[in-house]
Structures are given as structure tokens and as C-alpha cells.
Write a structure and sequence with these properties.
Layout (H helix, E strand, L loop, with lengths): L1 H13 L4 E5 L4 H13 L5 E8 L17 H18 L7 E6 L2 H12 L3 E5 L5 H7 L2 H8 L3 E5 L9 E5 L4 H17 L2 E7 L7 H8 L4 E3 L3 H9 L4 E5 L5 H5 L2 H8 L3 E5 L3 H24 L1
Parallel strand pairs: 1-2, 1-4, 2-3, 4-5, 6-7, 6-9, 7-8, 9-10
Antiparallel strand pairs: 5-10
């Protein structure tokens, strides 16, 4: 039974890396996000590198067309960034490149829904949470609004991932994060460290024990602070996420960790379409059984 449960967890973790899209903007941060996504991509998975250019009006004097209003130049710049990214990950995987016109965040979100992606990867802008929200940083917007798991990539030495941290509090979301972390640890022969934060929050001991089988470290810090502290000795930290929006997201553990961790952060979210498919399956099972009984 234990072996079956373990295999089920690994299978659930693998689903996160089935269909990955990476936001490409020509920065080194985006290239690092693409590299980490290529490494994490499942053996039978798919990696899409996505670039968008936007016509944003600006105030400028002189007779020349401002850069932000030069459609041809904008498109050429986006194409160049996309080609560079594909070349950057060529040794890992044959990525698909996509180019669209429009606001990057909106186009990325539309792409996720179109392809029903399971993970989006973006480079860390290096801005804090509040400043990132004010300036509309792509990473901040994606963390808030993506309907699937999110990887916020930060620079890392070779061997990624070799040390993985995952937060566990007994919730369904943390169980999914632990399953994903277990899958990565088994696949990359990486160290796995589960952290249970007990500062300011009541933890369900029974559920935590069921998730980690008792193999975890306790911290007296609050959840976000405990994971940020643990991230200093890791190269990937995972946290379960409900995908909250607006002001509620400002105080969420996943959002705070994504912007302040010392290493790459993976927010594990169940995509909307997977939940819908599950609900449909639950509905169809009794209906099918009833039809079979009537036919008999």
C-alpha cells in the first residue's frame, strides 16, 4: 500500500511539468527561467518559449518614431529574444517558440488557457512585493494571476536542483507541493527537506504526519519566514498555493516566499482545467453506473 501511495505521489508531481510555458523578454533572468524550466520539464513534456511585444504610448519629442511606438522594431526585438532563448536551451530540449503582439502578462495568461499549461516560468525581476505590484512587474503579475503552477527562477549554480525545500502544514495544497517535491527529489537524486512552521499557526499533526511520514524539520518561525530562511541553503523551494488574487494575495505565504526567497521558488497550483476534469469524472461515474444498471 505504501509503495502504491508513493507511486501515486510521484505521478501527481510529474503532472506539474507536463506542459511548461516560459515568458521571454530578452533578459538574462528570462534565459535562466528557460534553462531551469528545460531541466524540470518531464521526459514526455512540452516546453514553449513565449515572447510578446506591446505598443505602449510614451511622451517623446523630435521627429523620430519613439522606440515604444515602432512596431517593426518591437517585433524584431521580441523575435531576437525568442531565438536567443531557443538556442540557450537547445542542449536540453527542442522548445517551441511563440510570438504574439500585446501586453506580455495578458498574452501569457491567454497562452496558458489556450494550451492548458501546467506550469509557467518567469525570471525574478529582483523587485520587492509592493514595488513590483506598483510597477506592474511581469513576475509579480504572474504570481498573482496565473491559473497554474508558477516557477520564479533565480540564478543558481550547476547541479540544479540538488537541494529542495518544501513547506508542509497539513493542507491539501501543501500535500500537492510535497508530492511535487518528492517527484523532483527522486528524479534528480536531490536532497529533500520538508519544513513545518509552527509560529503563529496551528498545525494539524495527524495530516502533517500522513504527508511527510514524520520526516520533517520543525521551525518556530512563521510559515513565510521559515521557508525564506530554509531557502538560503537550497536552490529550489516549493510551497502550495491556492492562487488567491487582490489584497488577500498580499498576505499569502506563497506570494511572500516567491518574492523574498533566496533561491528559485515553485508555487504549486492545481490548474483550473484539471479541477474541472476531476469534477466531471466524479459526476460521470455514478451516471455511468446508473445507466449500466438500467441496461442490465
Amino acid at each position: 500500500m505504501a509503495t502504491s501511495t508513493h507511486a501515486g505521489r510521484l505521478e501527481a508531481g510529474a503532472q506539474v511539468f507536463a506542459r511548461i510555458v516560459v515568458g521571454i523578454d530578452g533578459s538574462q533572468q528570462a534565459l535562466e527561467a528557460a534553462r531551469q524550466a528545460a531541466l524540470l520539464q518531464d521526459v514526455n513534456g512540452r516546453l514553449t518559449l513565449f515572447s510578446a511585444w506591446d505598443m505602449t504610448p510614451i511622451l517623446a519629442g523630435g521627429a523620430e518614431i519613439p522606440y515604444d511606438l515602432d512596431d517593426v522594431l518591437q517585433r524584431a526585438t521580441a523575435e531576437k529574444a525568442l531565438l536567443a532563448a531557443r538556442a540557450y536551451v537547445a542542449s536540453y530540449t527542442a522548445a517551441t517558440g511563440k510570438l504574439m503582439r500585446g501586453a506580455p502578462v495578458e498574452q501569457l495568461l491567454q497562452e496558458i488557457h489556450r494550451d492548458q499549461d501546467t506550469l509557467i516560468a518567469v525570471g525574478s525581476s529582483g523587485t520587492g512585493r509592493l514595488f513590483g505590484i506598483i510597477e506592474g512587474a511581469v513576475a509579480t503579475e504572474i504570481v498573482h494571476r496565473a491559473p497554474c503552477s508558477v516557477l520564479v527562477a533565480r540564478p543558481v549554480d550547476s547541479g540544479f536542483p540538488h537541494s529542495i525545500v518544501v513547506g508542509v502544514d497539513g493542507s491539501v495544497e501543501s500535500a500537492c507541493a510535497y508530492a511535487t517535491a518528492s517527484y523532483l527529489a527522486a528524479r534528480f537524486d536531490a536532497e529533500l527537506h520538508a519544513v513545518v512552521a509552527r509560529g503563529g499557526k496551528v498545525v494539524n499533526e495527524q495530516l502533517v504526519a500522513m504527508i511527510t511520514a514524520g520526516d520533517h524539520a520543525d521551525s518556530r518561525e512563521r510559515p513565510a519566514e521559515a521557508l525564506v530562511t530554509a531557502s538560503k541553503a537550497a536552490d529550489l523551494v516549493l510551497v502550495g498555493s491556492r492562487g488567491m488574487h487582490g489584497l488577500r494575495a498580499l498576505g499569502s505565504v506563497s506570494e511572500r516566499v516567491a518574492h523574498t526567497a533566496a533561491c528559485s521558488t515553485l508555487l504549486v497550483r492545481e490548474p483550473i482545467w484539471q479541477r474541472v476534469a476531476l469534477e466531471l469524472a466524479r459526476y460521470r461515474t455514478p451516471v455511468a453506473a446508473a445507466e449500466t444498471e438500467r441496461g442490465a
